Amino acid sequence: MLNFLFVGIGAAFGGMMRYGISVWMKNKWKTNFPFATFIINLSGSFLLGLLVSSELATLWQLLLGTGFMGGYTTFSTFKVECTELYLQKKAKILTAYISLSYVLGISFAALGFLVGSL
């Protein structure tokens, strides 16, 4: 039961952090490229890689990894934004968004693993 509590608390704070960053970035930069989700997912990839490679206790992994990072990063928003770009016929932005998200996301996760294992 304690595991569920830790995941829930982490997810709540991760979701609030994601929302705050999204609102701030969307107000600061008016652009067709979905920078808020892009930055959130890249930073989340790095941080999750860092966490997974660390030797934190299981409850900390649940709180920060499964909970916080699960609430902070947003695969579903990424997919909706891709669909919106497709429907708006913004093929160049869509291609850049998908390509950069996957290539850099994996790269940032690998960098997180590397830093975490030092």
Automatic annotation (TrEMBL):
Localization annotation: Cell membrane
Main location group: membrane
GO terms classed as biological process: cellular detoxification of fluoride
GO terms assigned for molecular function: fluoride channel activity; metal ion binding
Entry GO terms, CC: plasma membrane
Membrane topology term: Multi-pass membrane protein
Activity: how regulated: Na(+) is not transported, but it plays an essential structural role and its presence is essential for fluoride channel function.
Pfam families reported for this sequence: CRCB
UniProt name for this protein: Fluoride-specific ion channel FluC
Organism this protein belongs to: Listeria fleischmannii 1991
